[in-house]
Structures are given as structure tokens and as C-alpha cells.
Amino acid sequence: MTAAMEVRAVVSLVHGTYFLPTAATPQLLLLAVMLVYFVRTMRPRQRSTCARPPLPPGPAPRPVVGNLPEMLLQKPAFRWIHRMMKDMGTDIACIKLGCVHVIPITCPKIAQEVLKKQDNNFMSRPVTFASKTFSHGYMDATLSPNGHQWRKMRRASPPRSSVPPDSSGFKISRARSSSIVDVRRVARHYCGNITRRLIFNNRYFGDPRPNGGPGQLEVEHMDAVFTALGVLYAFCISDYLPWLVGLDLDGHEKIIKKATETVSRLHGTIIDERWRQWKFGERQELEDFLDVLISLRDPQGNSALTMEEVTVLTLGIAIATVDNPSNAVEWALAEMVNNPELLAKAVEEIERVVGRERLVQESDIPRLNYLKACLRDAFRLHPVAPFNVPHVALEDTTVAGFHIPKGSHVLLSRIGLGRNPNVWEDPLRFNPDRHIATHDLKAEVALTENDLRFIFFSTGRRGCIAASLGTAMSVMLFGRLLQGFTWTKPASMAAIDLSEGKHNIFMAKPLLLHAEPRLPAHLYYQAT
Ligand code: HEM
């Protein structure tokens, strides 16, 4: 059979005339079948590509593993993703990690489309080994995917809007204070103190140090909480290829199990005893968040939450509370010690609003605008993590003209938004004044950022439940540190090194500063 006959045969087969030359060869049949398959399978796809917008730009994925090999070769993943987006000149990308479409976003308009316009569709969280372990199988309000349990726990999380009195880790003794202070340690333990006072009405799990500082159990608590935060949503391979769970290829499984066990044990000891006290009527007054949770009743009058649910809710609060304020204060202080005129401006505001005869109180917050502007710029420029907590698409949708498949992990980039040169002038410069309204210098500065030009408390159904408390914690910590001490860099240093960590965006090294008390002695913690 000639080539012309073969082509005629194929064409007629495809067009349905069923003409076949008598001596049809197997090769011809194979070719015809392939052609039919090709035409049949391509036609609908062509139709749907016309109807459906393309995926956001990104590297071509390989079968099964997608872009995981590139990601693993260019760790840390967040730096690789941002570098790639910059090279491509895009504010939204699609990276296929295993079977998951990961969608990083660096532009506020697109972020608003996700968390405001389509909030309903992006209200879930990813299913990962670490988040499942820490939330005891998704019992909590922070890490659970969308569903009944998340709604129940979110409703059950009514945190106080104010910082519990007398919980300040600031009250370090004068004897220790005129010396080099590890600001990171102080800031983290201040947040830990507040969390424990809020939940358990007690700063300590065990005995405090003689100077009032954190004891061994409080150190264990904060270490475990920060360890857990470090491995939640940390681009672990099995987050994207779930059939690899159990092999612990990144080592994260062991780490999160241990951290979960530590925090659950420390919280659980108090919760067991408190549960017993309520059960036997030894306790009747609501003194803290734990009492509120234990006393919640369903419409039938039974306990609304199980003991495990109460424990898990408190774990979620612990991880939600400590990292943001402590990180922002450490960075803000570092930037301001390098820019003494900014530091002087903030201290002058505290002098004017509060004076030296009492400590900064929550009632001062509305008038400490410059201080809040400093915190805002620290959150913008130096967020605690490169990405916001991930959101998952419940259905196929279109964002910024691109197709976002159901199940995609949408990552609003905290550094991409906060350092976006199209949004912020001179974005890498720490400049609190950018947050003071030039048309109304007295307008109150708030820490919330609803336009998502950077991420503070975020917004929408998965937005932070505790913006007032988060504001109070951050302002009180920073305000009291600035009010209580004159901060200077150690004499041996020309300037504070503002480098970020290799694998995260904390300061590469904890901030060590010289602290000189500046208030009357009775305002500091008195060692017993
Ligand atoms: C300065 C302090 C704080 C900041 C900057 C902050 C910020 C955030 C952010 C960015 C989210 C994720 C929002 C999203 O997924 O889009 C979040 C969620 C959350 N925050 Fe906060 N937060 C702070 C303090 C607190 C405190 C003190 C509590 C509780 C006492 C808390 C409880 C929660 C909870 C439960 C969620 C999860 C909500 C959900 O998934 O439905 N946060 N927070």
C-alpha cells in the first residue's frame, strides 16, 4: 500500500467512512488507533482550555513528583519560590509539589481576591502530618481543615481582649538588668507568661527562678512551642506525597511528635486537675480561659467539649500567641538601636504619654501611635514567617484570571506583600513614619491591616480571632521594654547585624543588647 493510500485510509477512518484497503498493515491500524485516540482526547481538552483560564505561571512539573526535586535541591523552599517569582516577574505562581498545586501570592489585590472576595472558597487548611499530630487529629481551631470540628472550636475560643494583669516578663530584677540582655529570650518568655496566665491563670508550671524568671518547665514549654512552629507547614515532602508518611524523610515527624507530647503533657497536667476540681464542685468561679472552656455547656446541659478538645484548644492558643509579638519586638528593637533617632522618638512618645512614675498600661495604647507604627513596620519588613498560614481551595476557581484547582494550597507571602516595591516605597528600609497618616498626624494607628498590604492579623473566616489581645501583648511588651531600659548595642559592635537566618527569617542570631534601667526601682521586679 502506498503512503497516499495509508493517509486516505486514516482520513476516512477518522471521518467515519469506514473505507479500508484490503491489505491494511498492522502499522496502519496502530497509526489509525493512535490518531483516533489523539483526536478524541485532544478535542475536549482544547475545548476546555478555551473555556478555562490557564494555571498561574510556574516551572513545568514532572510526572508524579512535580517540582519537588527543584525544591529539594534549592532549599530553603521559600527563598527558591520568591527568587523564581521575581525572575518570572509574576505576583502569582503555580508550583506543583507532588500532587498539590501550591499558589504563592505577593500582591495585595490578588490577596484580597482570595481572602475577601472568595473567602468562602479558601477557608480550609492543608492536611499534613505535622498539623494533624499537633492538633490531635484536627480537633483544634487553628490547624483544622474546614468542617464541623473547626467551626465548633473556633466558636469555643473567646479569648479575653486584654492582657492579664501582672503577667509581664518585663519585670526583670535590677540586679540582672544593668547588663547584656538576650532580647529574644525575654520577649518569648513574656509571651509565654501571658499565654499561661491567660489559659491557666498562672505564669508557671512549676517553681519560678528566685529572680522571677522562667523555670525549667517554662523553658521546656517555650522550646517545644517554637519547635512545633518551626515544622508546621515547612514544605515537608510528605505534605505533598502523603504516601511517604511514616518514612520521616525530613525528620519532621519525630520532631513534631516530641514537641506535641511535651506541650500536651505540660498543659494536660493542669487540665486534668482542673477538670477534677470542677467535677467535684471544688471550683465554681471562672478565673481563666480554662475555666471557661471546661464550663461550656451544650443545649442539653452536658459538657460542650471533651477533655482532649480542651487540651488541644489550649495547644492551638499557645502556638498562635507567642511567635508574632516576640519576633516583631526583637526586630524593631534591633532596627531602632541601629537608628537611634527612631528609638529616641519612640521613647519621647512614652515619656509624653505615660511618664516615669508608672508602667505603660493598656489604656495608653490608643495614644502610643509612633510605637504602634514601629511595630507595624517590623511586621511588614520582618514577619515571623515567609508565608501566612496556608489556605486551601475548596472548589475549582479563578483568581487574577488564572485557574486555581480545587485542593490548591494558597500561600499569601508575608515577605512578598510587605516588601513589594510596587506597594511600598524603599521597601527594605525600616521606616515607621510610613504608617502615620500625613493628612492627619493625630489619627490613631491600628495594628490591623485589612487591605493585606502586609499580613498582620490577616482577615476573613480564618483571620485571627484575637486582634485586640495580640495588639495589647505587642504594645505592652515593646512599650515596657522601651520605657524601662535604655537600650544600646554592646561596645564591641559597630552595628547590630540585621541578617536573617539561613533557613528562616528570624534574626540570624538572637539580639543581645545592653540594658540600663531608667525608672524608679520600685517599678521593677523585686527579687525575694
Ligand atoms: C500580635 C499577635 C498576633 C498576630 C500578629 C496574629 C496573627 C494571626 C494570623 C496571621 C493568623 C492566620 C490568619 C489566616 O489564616 O489568614 C492567625 C490565626 C489565628 N490566631 Fe492569631 N495572631 C496574634 C495573636 C493571637 C492570639 C493572642 C490568639 C489567641 C489567644 C490568636 C489566635 C488565633 C487563632 C485561633 C487563629 C486561627 C484561626 C482559624 O484558623 O480559624 N492569635 N493569627
General description of the model:
The chain is of the alpha+beta class and 528 residues long. The chain has two domains: 3-51, no CATH class; 148-523, Orthogonal Bundle (Cytochrome p450), CATH 1.10.630. The protein contains 19 helices and nine strands. It has helices at residues 3-15, 26-51, 68-73, 77-88, 108-117, 129-134, 148-155, 174-177, 183-200, 216-231, 237-240, 252-279, 289-295, 307-321, 323-338, 340-353, 369-381, 414-418, 467-484, and strands at 95-97, 100-105, 179-182, 391-392, 397-399, 402-404, 409-412, 485-488, 512-517. It has a four-stranded mixed β-sheet. Strands 3-9-8 form a three-stranded antiparallel β-sheet. A two-stranded antiparallel sheet has the order 5-6. A hairpin with a 2-residue loop joins β1 and β2 (100-105). The longest helix has 28 residues, at 252-279. The chain starts with a helix and ends in an 11-residue tail after the last strand. The model is unreliable at 1-49 (pLDDT under 50). It binds protoporphyrin IX containing FE. Residues 141-142, 154, 157, 159, 316-317, 320-321, 324-325, 388-389, 455-458, 462-466, 469-470, 473-474 line the site of protoporphyrin IX containing FE.
Give me some keywords for this one.
alpha+beta, Cytochrome p450, four-stranded mixed sheet, three-stranded antiparallel sheet, 9 strands, disordered N terminus, binds protoporphyrin IX containing FE, oxidoreductase, heme, transmembrane, monooxygenase, transmembrane helix
